[in-house]
Amino acid sequence: MSATDIHRPDGGIVLVITFQYYRDLPTAMRFYEDVLGFELAIDQGWSKIYRIDGQAHVGLVDETRGMKNWREEKTVQVCLRVPDVDAWYAWAEANKVDGLSEMFDSVELGIRAFVMNDPEGYQIEVQTAKPGH
Fold first, then answer.
1. Helix (H) or strand (E) holding 112
2. Among 8-17, 46-55, 57-66, 113-122, the least confident range
3. Rounded CA Rg of the chain
4. Which of 6, 35, 38, 101 is most exposed, with the fewest beta carbons within 10 Å of its own?
5. Does pLDDT of 10 surpass 70?
6. Which CATH number does 9-69 carry?
7. Whose CA is closest to 76, among 22, 12, 30?
């Protein structure tokens, strides 16, 4: 049997989880639960998986137990596309979220957006598509 005879399994994808690694898991959990309002979907003890929406999830992992280690430089960004970025921006300002940028528009990407940081520096972009995009 050759590689061309083997096809991707049917059945679709059940969940999509982006895992991020934390030194202080309880502080990260409070941010994702209390500030962002995400629902804890799967509690694996040292790994907490939060439902963002639909089948999109973010996993918070105690870096002493996970497959990767915490790194000061973050190379992952979680992006949330929302219907009303201005309302989200007002909410982020009211919650004094760390690393809150100014609101910006990208003509090239067709978005209006801002970024903020979670407690350990992972960047979260919140954006709305401009009409026609």
1. strand 111-117
2. 8-17
3. 17
4. 6
5. yes
6. 3.10.180.10
7. 22
